[in-house]
Amino acid sequence: MSRAAGVRGNEAGTPPRTGHPADATGQATTAAGGMMRAITRGIVIAGTAIGAALVGAGTCVAAPAVPSGTYQGTTNAPAGELIWKGKTFQGDTVVNNFAFGLTGLAGTTSQDGYGNTVIDYSPSGLGFLTDRISPNADGSYTGAVYVGGSQVGSFGLSGQ
Fold first, then answer.
1. pLDDT for residue 41 is more than 60
2. In 3D, which of 76, 80, 110, 78 has the Cα closest to residue 96?
3. What is the pLDDT of residues 56-105, one digit of tens each?
4. Close Cβ partners of 39 (under 8 Å, ≥ 6 residues apart)
5. Is the pTM of this model over 0.85?
6. Statement: residue 32 has pLDDT above 80
7. Pairwise CA distance, residues 71 & 156, whole Å
8. For residues 146 and 154, is the Cβ–Cβ distance under 8 A?
9. pLDDT, position 23
10. Chain centroid, CA 8 distance in Å
11. Is it the case that residue 137 has pLDDT exceeding 90?
């Protein structure tokens, strides 16, 4: 077919034109294409704003998962109960209670999104040490001790 017959772009290396509202680069050349880009941009902006609002809403009013107070501890560590007596929580901080009224090993608490409280001992210089505490139906807690991400022990907390 010749150029005069209405077929454009059949020269070597030139893609044929099909009458579709996109040029050779695939970019829309019609008002409808521009409108779709504007709508898409608006949806992305609105979704980003809603997502930011939802993230902000969940961060303002979270109460500590473990109410403030002193909890008596039990552990499966050999002779552990002779030394470790439990934990005292105050807001988002915790200290461990030891024999003879000694306290120490401070940490900060956070929630993991599954109903558990995670204690990070980085404030005591022990960033490799964490506890994970889960609530029980009777108001007590079951905990696990992790060193470098591996569980090395377990404990229980009860009463205030």
1. no
2. 80
3. 444 444 555 789 999 999 998 888 889 999 999 999 999 999 999 888 99
4. none
5. no
6. no
7. 9
8. no
9. 46
10. 56
11. yes
Residues pairing with 97 in the sheet: 86, 103
Enter the tokens of residue 66: 């473990």
Confidence at residue 124, expressed as pLDDT on a 0 to 100 scale: 93
Class of residue 131 by CB neighbours under 10 A (exposed 0-12, middle 13-18, buried 19+): buried
End-to-end, the C-alpha distance of the chain in Å comes to 92
Comparing CA positions, the residue from 107, 109, 111, 94 lying closest to residue 58 is 111
Output Rg (C-alpha) for the chain, integer angstroms: 31
DSSP state of 76: -
133: nearest Cα among 55, 75, 58, 60:
75
- Distance from C-alpha of 85 to C-alpha of 53, rounded to nearest angstrom: 43
Residue 39 φ/ψ region, left for φ over 0, alpha for ψ in the -120 to 50 degree band, beta for the rest: alpha
What percentage of the chain has pLDDT greater than the value 90? Answer: 50
With a CB cutoff of 8 Å and minimum separation 6, the contacts of 135 are: 65, 66, 115, 141
